[in-house]
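Example record

One chain of 180 residues, shown exactly as stored in the release files.
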Amino acid sequence: IFVPKSTRPGEEPLAEPLPPDYTPTPTPTVTPSVTPIPPGNIPHTDTAVAITDNRKADIMTYVEARWPASPIRSQWDYVYNTLRGDGYNPAFIIALWMEESGASGLTPYWDLGCGRGPQNNLPTQIACMNGLPYKNTSWAEFSCRFADGHYPCTFEAHPNFIRNLTGFYQCVTQSSCSLF
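Predicted structure tokens for this chain:
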């Protein structure tokens, strides 16, 4: 590394060349000690959240265009109503279903991302979601445990999960999925 000298005649040099054996001190990596709050702060257990029939139709059209093999039309009511009755926000569940498996349009995947039991098996996935011991925790804890398996976390194991899930949740709860 060479530090330039002044270029004006008669001025003292700003610095001399560094010795050939000079090794710069590496900049330390700072690891946050607090779990970052996941974007979106999705109210995953708010069962009062509802999806209108018009929004439902739009979401189904979006999913079928993106994942043609998805059984979303035949399985929507089962997924939506069962998990809503079990204490989950149905918009969160539909968004999670889209994020994890293209609403069961992709294989082999765990439909809802709950990594137990056979893949592409909605009844097993619903049972798995209901068996999560952290179901009724904060969004930060729930999302960490679901994505990385522990809390606190930095989402290193699945760095795109929160971004994708938040995008699908916005798609489900807002007027359009066209931007995602």
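Notes: Residues 53-66 form the longest helix (14 residues).
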